[in-house]
Amino acid sequence: MGSNFSKFEISTVSKKKINNYAIGIALHNNEGNVGINKREGWFRYWETMDDSFVGEGIVIDPYLLKDAFANISKTNDQSNLLVLVKPVKKITYYAGFAWQKSNQIHSLEDWDLLLKRQALIAKNPIEIKIIKN
User: Fold this and answer.
1) Residues 13-32: tens digit of each pLDDT
2) Is-contact 43 35, C-beta < 8 A?
3) Which has the closest alpha carbon to 52: 6, 4, 104, 3?
4) Tens digits of per-residue pLDDT, 69-118?
5) How many angstroms separate the CA atoms of 93 and 119, rounded?
6) Cα separation of 58 and 83, whole Å?
7) 71 close to 79: Cβ distance less than 8 angstroms
8) In this predicted structure, what is the pLDDT of residue 71?
9) What is the distance in angstroms between the CA of the first residue and the CA of the last residue of the chain?
10) Handedness of CA 12, 119, 77, 70 (dihedral sign)
11) Phi-psi region of 36 (alpha: psi -120 to 50; beta: other; left: phi over 0)
């Protein structure tokens, strides 16, 4: 509540070797703007939706990252921004969006700042310890 992002924790087990896992964002008709920031661990798409803009994004610990790239197809709805993750037992990442008409963001730069902020939150979580006397 009060966040544009949902936290996902994925645990996996496999008897076979896994090279990587993929997390992605649909690029629909390839008319938007892709942003890839491997160093900070955030990835986004900014696209026109009707008479406004929508930003979609993923935030993940850069340590888990193998690669990230836009896979472009000439077929509608077959293009994706793919984030490839090392095959670890537990993957934690954040995915979310913001809509320009919500008045939370007004521009691509605002969306990038929200993603940077979420990356800092993920990197520096609040830790609460309850000590019983």
Assistant:
1) 889 999 999 999 999 889 99
2) yes
3) 104
4) 999 998 888 999 999 999 999 999 999 999 999 998 999 999 999 999 99
5) 10
6) 8
7) yes
8) 95
9) 32
10) negative
11) beta
Beta strands in the chain (DSSP E): 5-11, 21-26, 33-37, 42-49, 52-60, 65-71, 80-85, 90-99
- State the Rg of the chain over Cα: 16
Q: How far apart are CA 109 and CA 35, in angstroms?
A: 11
- At 31, which amino acid appears? E
Return d(Cα 105, Cα 39) in angstroms, integer. 23
Per-residue tokens: 22: 């993929």
pTM of the model: 0.90
Q: Can you name the residues that pair with 52 across neighbouring β-strands?
A: 49
Bridge partner list, 56: 45, 97
